[in-house]
Amino acid sequence: MPLTKSAKKALRVDRANRLINDQTRNKVKSALKAARLAIAAGGKDAKTKIDAAYRELDLAAKKNVIHKNKASRLKSRLAKKLAKSEIATVVEKKQPKAEKTKKETPAKKLITK
């Protein structure tokens, strides 16, 4: 048990912060799980679930609940799973490139002396 007044306050603050951090961690976990399940199921809402997971990861990293490199790694893994799935081909159709126009050769300059 803390003895000093400041140690007692620190304990109160730590307990309150732990509750907030646990809530943030649970939001991240549930968002990641929902995104993974949406990718595996091949649903149309996979992209929105991934965006929600990205948002939760960024917020957790901003609040220092998880490290920013861990957030980046988890986002990268989600993106890889989406790219491997069949949804990626449906969501991101490649558009044909526009044809390049031919440059006309400029008229030869007259050399006068």
TrEMBL record:
Gene Ontology MF term list: rRNA binding; structural constituent of ribosome
Top-level taxon of the source organism: Bacteria
Basic and acidic residues: compositionally biased ranges: 93-107
Family matches, as HAMAP family: Ribosomal_bS20 (MF_00500)
Gene3D superfamilies found in the cross-reference section: Ribosomal protein S20 (1.20.58.110)
Record-linked InterPro entries: Ribosomal_bS20 (IPR002583), Ribosomal_bS20_sf (IPR036510)
Function: Binds directly to 16S ribosomal RNA.
Protein name: Small ribosomal subunit protein bS20
One term under GO cellular component: ribonucleoprotein complex
The keyword Transferase is assigned to this record: no
Keywords, sorted A to Z: Ribonucleoprotein, Ribosomal protein, RNA-binding, rRNA-binding
GO biological process: translation
Family matches, as Pfam families: Ribosomal_S20p (PF01649)
Region ranges (Disordered): 93-113
Similarity comment: Belongs to the bacterial ribosomal protein bS20 family.
